[in-house]
Amino acid sequence: MNAQSPVAKSLSTNxxxxxxxxxxxxxxxxxxxxxxxxxxxxxxTAFALVLLVRHFKEAVPLQTTAMNEVSTILGGADHVEEAxxxxxxxxxxxxxxxxxxxxxxxxxxxxxxxxxxxxxxRANELEGTEVVFASxxxxxxxxxxGWSKATLALIDTLVPAKARTSxxxxxxxxxxxxxxxxxxxxxxxxxKFDLEPVFLPDVSQSLDGxxxxxxxxxxxxxxxxxxxxxxxxxCATIAIGEHMREAADLLAARTGAPxxxxxxxxxxxxCDDFIAALTEISGVAAPADVRRERxxxxxxxxxxxxxxxxxxxxxxxxxDLLLAISTMASELGAKITAAVTTASGSxxxxxxxxxxxxxxxxxxEDLAHGADMIVTHAHxxxxxxxxxxxxxxxxxxxxxxLGAAYRTSVGYAGTxxxxxxxxNLFLSAPHGAVHHSQPAKEHVP
Length: 445
Prior knowledge:
The protein has 17 helices and 14 strands. It is of the alpha/beta class. It folds into three domains: 20-140, 3-Layer(aba) Sandwich (Rossmann fold); 169-287, Nitrogenase molybdenum iron protein domain (Rossmann fold, 3-Layer(aba) Sandwich); 291-442, Nitrogenase molybdenum iron protein domain (Rossmann fold, 3-Layer(aba) Sandwich), CATH 3.40.50.1980. Helix 12 runs parallel beside helix 17. The longest helix has 21 residues, at 288-308. The protein starts with a strand and ends in a 17-residue tail after the last helix.
């Protein structure tokens, strides 16, 4: 389906979209020894930091160039230089990932040129720290675009031309919608095919909540710089989500190895495509335990379809996450009666089994009359309460439930868990409950 625009209105009554700079910061947090740096005001950074900490419930080393009124008008190169030197002196990170914001992008600075001059002039002071820049203005795209642009910048800056080939290493580019639990599950599956995965970014090693016993100013885990450089020698690249297609294409051009872009890993057909790709790459047939997990998923689909058939779902999420949820639910007989996403342009929108609009949670609530479930992040809880329907929390942020980062909804086992979770929400809803709703324009933000 194509993305459509909702009825024009002068404000967002309940925001769905999360900014691109925050998405880029999340990607940089998936690199070992990294510090994301917002090139913008302190307020931009503080808001993003609050969302990250509330969702992951971990310390996040997010820094800012602290632009003010004067530097916004005259240029912020001095603030970037000062921030880089201070971060190097106080935190000594292995990587500083700079994320631009609307404040600096609107002015139209030659930031790439300024950064080259800074890195040349301050080469001695910044020795041992890589600096990667991602252009992520708030007014373009959303969480997915920020994540994909940061990943693209990491590859473009750090992955060299092809130097060697490993027949067993495979690059994996996970989408921003994959959780810590999802990434861990994919690692386990890939290794069953005698392959060694390198994930970029890898938040399963940096935002997984482990107690290291030592305080770290930068990220304590994630993909190492050596691993990123080694990606040039992998035998294949697997990207998960349409927003990772451009990064996969860049790696394919740089490495000469084939790339596989899998729009989703939730649902029987999607999981089969993943296993088929691993079999083709490795030359190893699917192990017995993988085949057994597939049979378990088939049984779960048989058990669960009684509770999904004919149910109406209202979904609001980033394009690739919306595609994953709506495809899986449709396979079981549910109908997607409302679908709202954050930004147009993603191929995932065309693949979704529904008419998708670009809008906010106010639009979702207007379209969700008669729905049996709302599927969106934590900010959709008030709409679900007003409509009197269950709320499946997915995506970012989820701050009023524990364990969101560990939920697994990809692969055969993850899809099975998601089916059970949704079916149990349907079962727990009061029988014959009356749905109540009001127009979104009457909501109090």
